[in-house]
Structure formats: C-alpha cells, structure tokens
Design a protein that fits this description.
Number of strands: 10
Bound molecules: ligand F0G
Shape: globular
Strand order of the largest sheet: 1-2-10-7-8-9
Number of helices: 15
Structural class: alpha/beta
Length: 353
C-alpha cells in the first residue's frame, strides 16, 4: 500500500483520484547506536531510511501525489528541474501514469545513478549550461506558458505527499521525536515534515512537536548566510542549491519549532557518510549524510543538553537518498582494491591472513 492509500484521510484526494503508486513509503526507522554513542547524554538516534523508496529517495512520497493529481486534472505532461532525485522519481511515476516527463538539469552536476534512472524511465532530459536555480526558473516559465504540470516541490501536492514521512515516524515511535534533523536544499522537505508534525498534533495523534534541525552544505548555505548564493558548491550535489524555493517556509519551520538551520563542511559530510556505511551498515548518499554530520557537529559544540538519568529523547535523522545513486563519490573517497596474481597465497597475503 502506498502513502496515498495509507494516509488518504490526511491528503487532498477523493475516490475520483487515480492513484499512481509504486508502493512508496513505509520505510524503516533504524536505530543507530554508533551515532547515539557519539552524541552521548542519553539520546536515542533513529535513521529514517528514505533510500528504500522505489526510486531510492524520499521524492517518491511527493511524486505519487503530484502525478496522481496531475492525471486527475487531465494533464498529459509534467516537468521539473532537478539535482537528480526529483527527476528520477518524476520519470518513474510518469512512466507508470503513461504521461510525458520533461526534465531540466544542470549539466555535469547530476550523480550518475540518478541520470541513469531518469533516462531509462523515458523522460526527455535536457541539460543546461547553468545551475539548479537557473533550471528551476526555466521550468517555472515553461509550465506557466504551456499546459504542463510543474512537479518540483513548489507544487503543493508534493509537500502533501512528503508530510507522510512525519506521520510514519510518529506512528512508529508513538510520539514525535524531540529533534528532527534533515538536509536542506530547495527546502521542500523541511516544509513538508513540519506540516506533517503540525497536522498530526492538531488531530491529537501526538502531544508535542519536534525541534527542526536543517543542515545545508557550507558552500551552498543560502539560508544560513541569509543571502542567495550565485554559484553554490558542494560534493553533495543533491543539495547544491543557492536560492531555495521554500526558503520562507523553512525559516518558519525553524523558528516555530525552536530549531535551527546550520551548515556542515565537505569533510564533516564525508565523515558522517563513512560512519553510516562502516558502523551503522547503511549506504546513504552524501546529501543525506549532512543530517548526521549536522547532529554530530552540534553535539561537539555542546548543543544537546545532558539528560537526567531515566529521561529519554529521540533524534530522528532523515537519510533522504540511497548511496547507490552516487557510486562515483564512494569510489572517490576510498582506496581502490589491490590487484594481485590469481593465486590463493596472493589473496591471503593481501588480506593479512
Ligand atoms: N537529500 C536529497 C538526497 C535530495 O535529493 C534533496 C533534494 C534534498 C536532500 C533536499 O531536499 O530540496 O526538499 O530541501 N533534491 C532535489 C532534486 C532538489 O532535484 O532531486 P529539499
């Protein structure tokens, strides 16, 4: 069962909505002791592993809604700008809905797995000599002028679908976490999670709301710097965005929740990326690791207060995309395997046995 069917009472759908689903959502909330040990002070750390969605990222929650509503409204085509995951998801759901999908991407800035997905699902992919922010401007104009539905997260149905991530976390924990950490790019997901928690509280499903902790890459941190970044830079290409579309909503989520939006360096992202893979056993893409990098950094700065014995607090980090999306990055930050003679002795020697 996909997220529309599971949470339809919270979503703007009716019996007439043609549900285009790939059985997205219902992703695991994995306990992460190696991270909790580093935070110390009695905190529990959970990882919402969104890489296990059908196209390998959280975007599928929003895309099932956006494409279902587009089809309901009679649209024959959708379009998006993307740093890769939105396009992979839009392409897959459009294929399933048998509608056209147009994708505008920044040339050379999309991880290989994401580009492969977008192409194999049959989207029309156009690379521009520019960045994500410019691609989004073009797609906004395109969808204003032609009968094509925009499926970036400024489409409100995307946010509606993505808020189901918050519902799942609360359903699993039986309450909201104390802190909710996630990477921030175009700022749709922080907006969506905050909406989800707020609505669950209004409906009496939870008593309290989490503090929202958003993390941007240091070279692409417009919200932290308080200004548009003309040439954003980061190895976490998914969040290489200099002018987030949901900037204001992200600030509202931060302020209303008593949380923060801060930045993490490339080194901190890679360190968290390796800890996740080496010690927790989860391969997440670099942008996802920014959430973990962020809480580790804040712990180092003494942000998390010491809990009284017996007290418990949950920190949930969203791991937004699968590590296999960006195989080049994993290979680049590790040693290449040695090549030896095809003999047992040579393998034993190299294995140190
Ligand atoms: N993590 C991953 C893996 C992403 O792909 C994105 C955004 C984010 C985090 C940030 O989420 O934009 O809602 O703040 N990717 C978009 C894309 C921009 O085109 O795939 P956000």
């Amino acid at each position: 069962m996909g997220v529309i069917e599971r949470y339809k009472e919270y979503l703007p759908v009716s019996d007439k909505t043609p549900v285009i689903s790939l059985e997205e959502g219902d992703t695991p909330l994995v306990n992460a002791e190696p991270i909790a040990e580093r935070i110390g002070k009695g905190y529990n750390v959970w990882l919402k592993y969104e890489g296990l969605n059908p196209t390998g990222s959280f975007k599928d929650r929003g895309m099932t809604m956006a494409v279902s509503k587009a089809v309901e409204e009679g649209s024959k085509a959708v379009a998006c700008a993307s740093t890769g995951n939105t396009s992979a998801s839009a392409a897959a759901f459009s294929a399933r809905a048998k509608i056209k999908c147009i994708v505008v991407i920044p040339e050379g800035a999309i991880a290989l797995g994401k580009l492969a997905q977008t192409l194999i699902h049959g989207a029309k992919v156009i690379a521009i000599k520019g960045n994500f922010d410019q691609a989004l401007d073009i797609v906004k104009e395109l969808t204003d002028k032609y009968p094509i539905t925009l499926v970036n997260s400024i489409n409100p149905y995307r946010i509606e679908g993505q808020k189901t991530g918050a519902f799942e976390i609360c359903d699993k924990l039986g309450k909201a976490p104390y802190y909710h950490a996630l990477p921030v790019g175009n700022a749709g997901n922080i907006t969506a999670y905050w909406k989800g928690y707020t609505e669950y509280k209004e409906k009496g499903k939870i008593d309290s709301l989490p503090k929202m902790l958003g993390f941007q890459a240091a070279g692409s941190a417009p919200i932290v710097e308080g200004k548009v970044i003309k040439e954003p830079k980061t190895l976490a290409t998914a969040i290489k965005i200099g002018n987030p579309a949901s900037w204001k909503q992200a600030e509202e989520a931060r302020d209303a929740s008593g949380g923060m939006i801060a930045k993490v360096t490339e080194e901190e992202i890679i360190e968290a990326y390796k800890i996740l893979a080496n010690e927790v056993g989860i391969f997440a893409e670099p942008a996802s690791a920014a959430s973990v990098a962020g809480i580790l950094k804040k712990a180092g700065e003494g942000y998390f207060e010491e809990l009284k014995p017996g007290d418990e607090r949950d920190i949930v980090c969203v791991l937004t995309g699968h590590g296999l999306k960006d195989p080049d990055r994993a290979i680049k930050c590790l040693d290449h395997p040695p090549i030896v003679e095809a003999k047992l002795e040579a393998v034993l020697k190299e294995a140190g046995l």
